[in-house]
Amino acid sequence: MAIIVNRPKLTFVERCYLPSILAGLAITWKHLKRALFKKGIVTMQYPEEKWDANMPEWYRGAPTLVSDEHGKDRCVACQLCEFICPPRAITIKPMEIPEGDQWRKVEKRPEEFDIDMARCIYCGLCEEVCPEQAIYLRKDYSITGLNRAEMVHDKKTLYKLGGVMKGLVFKWNELK
Amino acid sequence: MDTVKILHFLTTPWVFLLWTSFLKSFIFLNLTIIVVSVTVFAERKVSALIQDRVGPNRVGIPLTLFGAKKDSFFWGLGQMVADPIKLLTKENFVPAGVNKFYFWLAPKLVMIPPILILAVLPFGSTLFGIPMTIAEMNVGVLYIFAISSLSVYGITLAGWASNSKFPFIGGIRSSSQMISYELALGLSVVPIFMICGSLNLNEIVDWQIKNGWLVSPYWPKGFELSLLLHPSDLIHALVAGLSIQRFALWIPLLISFIIFLVAIFAETNRLPFDLPEAEQELVGGYHTEYASMNFALFFLGEYAAMFAGSGAIVSLFLGGWSCPLIPDGSHGWFWGLVNIGVFFVKVSLMLLFMIWVRWTLPRFRYDQLMKLGWLGFFPIALGNIFLTALILAFIHH
């Protein structure tokens, strides 16, 4: 069935366009004047101003490796994250923890741990799969580099970005 | 001896005319290019402010490269230089399927007419006794109409030579739009000729200096600052300015001002009449296939046309280079420069108005555009001429 939409009947003044054009000009002038004195501007000047403080808890930024308050680097080189990583951004070279080390009973730790940030898709699967609570996606989002080699985060960078995280499960204590 | 000879040679009338004209054209042309780049910057900045944004504010002088603590941004004014440099250094890509010769020719055809129009605009009174018009013609306004209608060829040709559907539609739209509004443009200024009795822009400006700007209904006769000290003379001047004829003529002049203004918008393809390049419908309109400096020429042409159009409006309706209480160039070179400054201030305000309108109004639908041109402005402009004639014939005071 055809629906008839009744167009509003315009008066002569309305059909002249000019009054509504002037009204529109007045509105834009108001905005121009306001913005000229730095009021009501909605854009943010990115590198100087950031939205970081308002980021949600669950924000998935760059993946990092964390240590805990007992001075243990948490990764045990199980390589689960390497296997689950969809774009295969993670490369781990495991090594045996030598005799006499404080954490000898852990047996393995990564000798090299590289995350290629040019490949990473920030999906967070590595964080979810990690049985040791060693890898966490933090809030860094501006990962830049001048070439592909610079975009690869090695073990040192990852631990530096991750820092120390307190209150994680400590299953490698002396009692166990 | 030689210097005397050279001076003598330089001051022979035709040589004098030649080199002063050349110098004036050179300076005015370069000034136009500067005005265009400033206008492009102003366009971006004003559009940003109207939309509650900040606009370009980053390009400045990278002082940190030379060891300073902070970069200097200069409110982004470096953008005026950065944009042309970017356009100049880009690859001038020409698609394979285009008609090469016309494809190269079209941008030049768009760019040349607005610059030719500048020749007849009186942009100042006199400087060192030299009239500040490049070519004083007694058919100045006709010349403007003749030249400005040429720019449609460039756009149509660009659309056709691109051999691609969107530019083609843009070119076709542009030709029909320009033809429709050309009529209203030409007819709307006929009342001015009837009132001023001249087609010469300089004489029109002179008329306005004597009798007041054409958009104003009232102008105190012979008003000067010294009159403020003699109240009786002041009142006399104020009363002498009152005239029924002038007040009656205000109605047709205001109508022709509005029609001329709108037609200039349509001629320069500015919103709300930018159908030839309607980005949302036609990708980029007639210049879709163009890149780098070829595209920049279209850009330059559009903004130079804005400049020329504003110059025409200012000269025809807003008193040209004159400003009340400011003497003309015959009182010294300083006042000559002030007159040029007044002209450029008026033109800048006009350009600002054009930018302001662009970021306020939505685009017309195509049928609305044609209807407005043929059923709106054309008959009104025609009727306006008769109205002016009647007023001139029957009201004499």
Describe the structure in your own words.
The complex is a heterodimer of chains A (176) and B (397). Chain A is an alpha+beta fold and 176 residues long. Chain A has a domain at 56-162: Alpha-Beta Plaits (2-Layer Sandwich), CATH 3.30.70. Chain A is built from five helices and five strands. The relative contact order of chain A is 0.18. Chain B is mainly alpha-helical. Chain B has one domain. Chain B has helices spanning 2-11, 13-50, 79-89, 100-117, 140-148, 151-161, 165-188, 190-196, 201-211, 231-241, 244-267, 279-282, 292-317, 333-358, 366-394, and strands spanning 126-127, 130-131. Chain B has a two-stranded antiparallel ribbon. In chain B, α2 crosses α3 and α4 (100-117) packs parallel to α13. Chain B is globular. At the A-B interface, α2 of A face α2 of B.
Low confidence ranges of chain B: none
| Protein structure class of chain A | alpha+beta
Number of helices of chain A: 5
Mean pLDDT, all residues of chain A: 87
| Topology of chain B as a string of helices (H) and strands (E) | HHHHEEHHHHHHHHHHH
Specify the CATH class of the domain at 56-162 in chain A. Alpha Beta
Terminal CA distance of chain B reads 61 Å
- Tally of contiguous helical segments of chain B: 15
CATH architecture of the domain at 56-162 in chain A: 2-Layer Sandwich
Contiguous uncertain segments of 5+ residues of chain A: none
Helix-strand pattern of chain A, N to C? HHEHEEHEEH
Which range best describes the helical content of chain B: under 10%, 10-25%, 25-40%, 40-55%, 55-70% or over 70%?
Answer: 55-70%
DSSP strand (E) fraction of chain B? under 5%
Count the E strands of chain B.
Answer: 2
Biggest chain pair contact, residues each? A-B, 17 and 15 residues
Tell me the β content of chain A: 5-15%
